[in-house]
Design goal:
With about 230 residues, this protein is an alpha/beta fold. It has 9 helices and 10 strands.
């Protein structure tokens, strides 16, 4: 088990919204204006047929849950490991509950769509988590998952004396992992950009995760490449 999917580490990282918001604030769309969250929302919308039950696992502060909840005909349940995130999501008018993706408290075939955004690399048992997703999905249902690639912010990490971040569910591995459970897997790769107005902002981003290293000082603004994949599996 790596630190990234150690339950104690994850619990500490997301006890409050500070680390997540520090990382979220710097991201910009691709050069042609595409945003991963918007593309994921479009994938969810494409999967909806009439009234639909949707589950978001790892809802974070509820930004995406609020948008899903606004789609016509959707009944949404959002769950997260963090009590603080459940509280924040519920404050947006969403049915939010504390739950673990490895032990989802729902009946078989309860949902038409399940969404997991930037969280599968955090789960302690990926195989069990995906089995749970498959279990609660109705026949013909769609699983939408968003994750980062191995080259995501690699240049920034290397400059800070670290290595690329290799995770258990990435742009590189996600398709093969999902094909073990889903007959149809599609992907949309997006070359995003992290824009830091100054050195302090870049170092704060690194410091939002333990052991991230020291970035050599630089003047002015700096941009680093990201890589994100939106998977649709059914």
């Amino acid at each position: 088990m790596s630190q990234l999917n150690d339950p104690d580490y994850v619990r500490e990282q997301y006890a409050t919204e500070t680390n997540l918001e520090t990382r979220r604030a710097v991201w910009q769309p691709t050069t042609d204006g595409l945003d991963p969250a918007t593309e994921a929302l479009r994938a969810i919308d494409r999967a909806l047929v009439g009234d639909a039950h949707v589950l978001e696992v790892g809802c974070g502060t509820g930004v995406m849950a609020e948008q899903i909840n606004a789609l016509p005909g959707v009944t949404l349940v959002a769950v997260d490991f963090s009590p603080r995130f459940v509280e924040m999501t519920a404050a947006r008018g969403v049915d939010a509950r504390e739950a673990d993706i490895c032990y989802l408290p729902f009946e078989d075939a309860s949902f038409d769509v399940v969404f997991a955004g930037w969280m599968l690399y955090h789960v302690r048992d990926l195989e069990r988590a995906l089995n749970e997703v498959r279990r609660v999905l109705r026949p013909g249902g769609t699983f939408v998952a968003v994750t980062n690639g191995n080259d995501h912010l690699a240049e920034l990490r290397i400059e800070a004396g670290k290595t690329r971040e290799i995770t258990q569910f990435s742009s590189e591995t996600g398709e093969s992992v999902l094909r073990r459970r889903f007959a149809d897997v599609r992907r949309h790769d997006l070359e995003t950009r992290a824009v830091f107005p100054d050195h302090a902002t870049a170092q704060a981003y690194l410091d939002s995760a333990p052991g991230a290293g020291e970035l050599p000082f630089f003047e002015g603004e700096r941009e680093y490449a990201g890589h994100v994949t939106v998977f649709e599996a059914r």
